[in-house]
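User: What would this chain look like folded?
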Amino acid sequence: MLQLSAFKVLSFDCYGTLIDWETGILQALAPLAARCSAQPTPEALLTRYARLESAQEAETPDLVYRALLEKVHARMAAELGVAANAADNAAFGASIGQWPAFADSPQALAYLKRHFKLVILSNVDRDSFRASNARLGVAFDAILTAQDIGSYKPDPRNFAALIAEVGALGHAPTELLHVAQSLYHDHVPAQQAGLKTAWIDRRAGKSGGATPEAPAAARYDLRFTSLAELAEAHRREAAATLTRSA
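Assistant: Here's the prediction, encoded as structure tokens.
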């Protein structure tokens, strides 16, 4: 089995992996949903969001994420037949920094920081990530956003940029493990780039949500249901190594 101790650098998707974006998205969409004549279910809202967000990212790859979300909100309102003005759209775009961290993220990251270099590769803009970073409570060794790269995952340019950044930190791609929830945004392109990946299956095998469906051929090397589980796996590896060397 692949050992976490084989790696020197962990790169992370942020939203959906470290930040509970589905809770944040639904909270930010609540005013719009409340105005619908037929109340959409949370899953229906998230599925619609996944489709509209990925389409907008493909259409406007150079648009910063908070502005991109304004367009997503406007499109969603139009599809739901609900009026939304510029202020409503802007409020949704500005909500990113209010999205909560998963409860296990800060403590797990603090542990992992003691053993790995940590890198962010996120479909977001710098200002929005700064607010989320404060919720995570860890200093990352490098931060790469869609704003920096000029494209959104799953574009292969994002993973080429990640590999180059890790090289600048003094590490080969073989020393990097990419950690992410989204098979669509992260695991498919990361594997195509030759990287090993760990799936944080936050939805516990349940498909759908705010992430588009991945191709049937989506692969990953390790699977955990939380970041805490990944950190605990590393802790057990380290304890076993100490026992063998004693």
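Strands lie at 9-12, 117-122, 142-145, 176-180, 196-200, 222-224. If you want, I can go into more detail on any region.
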